[in-house]
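Name: C40 family peptidase
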Amino acid sequence: MHYFSRLILLSALLLSVACAPQRTVTQGPYAEKNSVARVAIQQPANKELADDVLFRAFGLVGTPYKYGGNTPESGFDCSGLIKFVYSDTVGLQLPRTTGAMMQTKAPVVPRNQLRSGDIVFFATSGGRRVSHAGIYVGEGRFVHAPSSGGTVRLDSLDSQYWKKAYLQAKRFLPEQQLVSNP
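Structure predicted for C40 family peptidase:
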């Protein structure tokens, strides 16, 4: 029964992300006057990479938390989950700790420009020192391994707790690209 409830939850989460509206830019720096309009894709240049990251992260929801854990069999802590998902899906070897991930040279993303696959960082102990991270999945939600006794789960960036602890986000997947729109 546990398997089927996880499968139903995963299906519902995937459906809600897949059905999210996508916005296009038809004016500003991505549109050209007196020419064929150019549209900025709101997905990474290789949408399959972001999809792979999301599907793998969603598939790990319910995996037990384990400090220092970095595999589905052993359980995960927050950085172990992120490192595993990125390595397993796109072959990207990220650092093992949230502090080292945040120090990695990658574009910092404003909160209002988050895209699926971005890594969100938090200071759960107060101050400005990173102590937690998760994978942004869209619609203001992220997947993470929260704490001892818990499991990998989906949470909202807009909850009071996460809103207060939010530090920044970084993009480790390719940037958006421009395509012609006939």
